[in-house]
Amino acid sequence: KSSIIHQCKLCSYNSFSRANLARHLRTHTGEKPFKCTLCRRSFSDPSSLKRHSIRHIK
């Protein structure tokens, strides 16, 4: 595990994980790169897309 703290330059968010910081930065940019292939809805993180995709199965 990394001991480097990654800091958001736009707010006070900090994380030991660079991936978490990258996900957090999308809250500032509004970027939603993860798209549902069935309905084209977009999400900012893959876990939200996965949770959404389960709804199409039910």
UniProtKB/TrEMBL annotation:
Q: Which GO terms describe its cellular component?
A: nucleus
Q: Which GO terms describe its molecular function?
A: DNA-binding transcription factor activity, RNA polymerase II-specific; RNA polymerase II cis-regulatory region sequence-specific DNA binding; zinc ion binding
Q: Which SUPFAM superfamilies match?
A: beta-beta-alpha zinc fingers
Task: Keyword check for RNA-binding, yes or no.
Answer: no
**Subcellular localization:** Nucleus
Q: Which UniProt keywords apply?
A: Metal-binding, Nucleus, Repeat, Zinc, Zinc-finger
Q: Output the Gene3D superfamilies linked to this UniProt entry.
A: Classic Zinc Finger
The answer to keyword NADP applying to this record is no
- Span of domain C2H2-type: 6-33, 34-58
Major subcellular site: nucleus
* Any Pfam family hit: zf-H2C2_2
Task: Give the matching InterPro entries.
Answer: Snail/Krueppel_Znf (IPR050527), Znf_C2H2_sf (IPR036236), Znf_C2H2_type (IPR013087)
Q: Which family does it belong to?
A: Belongs to the snail C2H2-type zinc-finger protein family.
Under PANTHER family, the record lists: PROTEIN ESCARGOT, ZINC FINGER PROTEIN
Protein name, UniProt field: Chorion transcription factor Cf2
**Upper taxonomic lineage:** Eukaryota, Metazoa, Ecdysozoa, Arthropoda, Chelicerata
